[in-house]
Amino acid sequence: MDMFTLVAAIVILFLGRQVFWLFVAALGAVEGGQLALTYFATQPPWVQVAAVILGGVLGAVIGIFLQPLAAAVVGFYAGGAVAQDLVLRWGLTAPTYAWLPFVIGGITGAVLMLLIFNWALIVLSSLYGATLIVQNTHFPADTQRILFLVLFVLGLLVQTALYKRNPAAL
Q1: Is there a domain that residue 18 lies in?
Q2: Which of 18, 45, 54, 93 is the most exposed, having the fewest neighbouring CB atoms within 10 Å of its CB?
Q3: Residue 22 included in any domain
């Protein structure tokens, strides 16, 4: 796991609700990096770095100025990514239908983000942060499942405590 992804995953896991715009920026940067590796692998490194920066800046701008749109987009993406990862990690679907959990999880995440923003943000950012960390480990599958659950619960506990201490902060 590269250092940027690890730091972004930890920030998302423990502070996703506190710094919503940073959650959206980190998500944009991480996904910008993934797109750069997929589509710009043969390009000079500065092109890949530019894609990461562009994704992060775009995410931050959307998170700051278009919060409802950002909430729906982040809810869809995080919900979809987590659902797809969990279903595939637990071996519950055939690869042919791997997109279906993403769509179902994405719609669920987007609706939850729009209806119960704070709690959905806490849950989704904890899930997504834990997913990012676990996806980038090389542990056996059983260890990854346990690590995911431990990180998810830790993220929930930390973010819930921060929310109860200062519910207006966002």
Answers
A1: yes
A2: 45
A3: yes
Query: What does pTM read for this prediction?
Result: 0.74
Q: Which of 101, 75, 86 is nearest to 135 (CA)?
A: 86
The secondary element (H helix, E strand) that includes residue 159 is helix 141-165
Do the beta carbons of residue 13 and residue 129 sit within 8 Å? yes
In a domain, 170, yes or no: no
Number of structural domains the chain divides into: 1
The string of pLDDT tens digits covering residues 59-103 is: 888 878 888 888 888 889 888 988 888 887 777 766 677 788 889
Q: Are 151 and 114 in contact (CB under 8 A)?
A: no
Contact between 77 and 34 (Cβ < 8 Å): no
Strand, coil or helix: 98:
coil
Domain range holding 150? Answer: 3-165
Asked if 144 and 89 touch (Cβ cutoff 8 Å), the reply is yes
